[in-house]
Specification:
The chain has helices at 2-12, 47-65, 74-98, 105-131, and strands at residues 16-23, 31-41. By secondary structure, it is an alpha+beta fold.
């Protein structure tokens, strides 16, 4: 599920996230924004880092499914996937917030996909963490007999 959502996040970065804006009227006047003028893809600005996070997440999950990771702990694998998906959300959100002019539906879909990816990855990690048996505390040592009185010579 995480691989599919990560792949969708990666693909939607190629679509137009912002319509280009042209100033109309005197300097500092209104601007007209629209996709008919042109578009800016999701790869602008922080979108590059979001795309790299998506690629890393897809590769990490693929290697995890193929059992090619030699970490020995599924908890670590899932924690890394949750961290990569959190990075995907942060940088997708930064991409949207730094390019607010002329946002299209693709920007909001990309942000929603990033949040969904993170929610699934974090929920999977937390579910595994709860199911993992907690280590039992060590038993306290049994009291030993107190030493006898010192010998007098």
């Amino acid at each position: 599920m995480v691989i599919l959502l990560g792949l969708l996040c990666f693909v939607i970065l190629f679509f137009g996230w912002n319509g280009l804006c042209l100033p109309v009227g005197p300097v500092g006047g209104r601007s007209v924004c629209g996709t008919a003028i042109g578009v800016v893809s999701g790869w602008a600005g922080f979108g590059v880092v979001a795309g790299l996070a998506a690629v890393c997440l897809i590769l990490w999950e693929a290697l995890s499914l193929a059992r090619a990771l030699a970490l020995g702990s599924q908890a670590v694998e899932r924690q890394v996937a949750a961290g990569l998906s959190a990075a995907l959300v942060v940088f997708t959100l930064l991409r949207v917030l730094t390019h607010l002019t002329g946002l299209t539906a693709c920007a909001w879909i990309g942000l929603a996909l990033a949040v969904a990816t993170c929610a699934v990855a974090v929920a999977r990690w937390l579910r595994y963490r709860r199911a993992e048996p907690s280590p039992e505390p060590p038993e306290p040592p049994e009291p030993s007999e107190p030493p006898g009185p010192p010998a007098i010579s």
